[in-house]
Amino acid sequence: MHLVVHADQRQFSLRDSGSRLDGSGWTALAVESHRIAPEPGGIAIATARSDLVESSVTLLPSAPALMADADHVVEADLPVPSGKLVISGPADYPSQEKFFSVLPGLYRARVSYVPAGPPSVDWNDHEFGEHYRYVVELWPAPSESDVEVLKQGATVWDG
Questions:
Q1: pTM over 0.90
Q2: Reduced to 3 states, what is the DSSP secondary structure of residue 150?
Q3: Would you say 18 and 44 are in contact if contact means Cβ atoms under 8 Å apart?
Q4: If we measure between CA atoms, which residue out of 55, 137, 67, 143 comes closest to residue 102?
Q5: 67 in helix, strand or coil?
Q6: Eight-state DSSP code of residue 103
Q7: Whole-angstrom distance, CA of residue 12 vs CA of residue 28
Q8: pLDDT tens, 16-38?
Q9: DSSP structure class, residue 35
Q10: For residue 61, with 0-12 CB atoms within 10 Å meaning exposed, 13-18 middle and 19 or more buried, which class applies?
C-alpha cells in the first residue's frame, strides 16, 4: 500500500489500533542510530522532514532481501494483537489515519530509508531536509527480537 503521510514533528507511526504511542521509545540511541522508536504498541519512524512524506507498507510471508538503494535500514518488532494496523502522523485526526489489516500477531517491521524526490502532492518547499520514501516491510515473527540496524545511514541526515 502506497501512502502519503503528514510527518509532523518529523515522524509518523505504525501502531496497533488498540494502542497509543507516548514517545517513550525516543531514547538517545533511537534518535542517533536507529531512527525508529519502538514501544509496546507500535513504532514511531523518524523522518528527514516535518512535511508530507511518501511511504509504503507491504505484508510479506518472510524477511525480504535488503533494498540496495536504501541509505538506512532498521528492523524492530511490531505487535498487532487486534489485526488492525494504524498509520498516522502525530497531528492527524482520526479521520486522517490510514488502516492496514493483518492477521493478529507479532510482526517484524523493516524500515528502509530510500532517497526520493518530493511527493506527487503539495509539500512544504520551505521545510529543510532530504526527501525519502519510507518503505515498511512486515512479516510474521516467530518470537521477539531486539532492534537491529542492518545498514547505518549518515550521522547527519535530516536537514
A1: yes
A2: strand
A3: no
A4: 137
A5: coil
A6: -
A7: 18
A8: 999 999 999 999 999 999 999 99
A9: -
A10: exposed
For 18-157, where are the alpha helices, taking DSSP H only?
28-29
**157 versus 41: which is more confidently predicted?**
41
CA–CA separation, 138 vs 9, rounded Å? 24
CB 17 within 8 A of CB 99: yes
- Determine the 3-state secondary structure of 28 from DSSP: helix
Position 4 scores a pLDDT of 83
Distance CA(8)–CA(121), nearest Å, equals 16
SS3 27: coil
Bridge partners (DSSP) of residue 143 are none
Chain segment 107-122, per-residue pLDDT in tens: 999 999 999 987 777 6
Continuous H helices in the chain: 28-29
Q: Measure the CA–CA gap between 18 and 159, rounded to whole angstroms.
A: 34
